[in-house]
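Milestone M4 deliverable, item 7.
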Amino acid sequence: VDVGPDPATGKRQQILRQGFANRKQAEAALSVLLHEVETGTVSRRSRITVGEFFADWLASQRQRLRPTTLRSYQIAADRITRQIGRMPLQALTPAQIEKLYTDLLENGNLRDRLAAKTVRNTHVVLRKALADAERLGLVPRNAAAAAKPPTAPRKEFNTWSTDELREFFAIARDDRLFAAYVLLATTGMRRGEVLGLRWGDIDFDAAQLGIVQTLTTVDFVPTFSPPKTARSRRVVYLDDQTMSVLKQHRRLQRQERLAVGEVWDTTNDLAFRDDLGRLLHPEWFSREFVRLTRLAGLPRIRLHDLRHTYATIALKAGVHPKVVSERLGHATVGITLDLYSHVTPAIARDAADVVASKIFELDLSRR
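Output delivered:
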């Protein structure tokens, strides 16, 4: 099919499609190709490789993604380009992509093999990149959209009961970061959201706080960034006890600042800092939590599992899943229900008892 002269050279351009099993398939493909030419969506022949495309694509993402997300994309892109980086982008097929996933799962020694979830994350990045390539007319279709990634088993997480939380608080009460642990447990906030919290983000009169930044790590370097998603940028309402703990923490921090004097770091307004006013490294904060957990003799959980503990306790207590979802900053309530599906049977049983009690109470009152 003629697609007009090349804008750069003026030479005639043609696009070739071949390899059809019969005339009917060829005519159908011709119809599609003519439509693409008319609408300007046809993919012109290109020799760009997968590796070259990813280099340009990652550069275009720098201003669009959080630093941590960009870093995860770069790691996934490195995996892809090591395997198929020299392959022409337009030659990529679903079968070749599925072979890539198999290679990542099975090839090499045990230390080089990737978990199924990691390969699925790689698939997400590849699919997103090829969607942009399709939109830009670099490929006729997104081959990754037709490829099937490996199935990853659901990751189980551990939580504490309310009694175990109380035991932890009893041990951590004298720790200078006690308020941070309370905030994690009573709100379900993420680690980075708590460490990025500033005093100016807390409204003590209205008993609420706003999540507007996070403190995470990129290559182990602490980095401030916007919240994880648009829904993560939210207002979180606080209970009286948490507010009281935060006020006490603010008084203690002011005393620390007076004692340290000019050495105190005044470059930020963070609610949680080290004893010289500097920001806390997120990984150090997680290790401190593990240390306190061992000291309390409690079942070991990750710091992030305090978020799961909050959600589990809230749902079991009858808090509406929509409310829990909003407090956690999930994109949809469906994510919350799927993530905590192990809790919903208990909720369903309670609902059965509650509704039945109302029905039979009505029947008895009519006698």
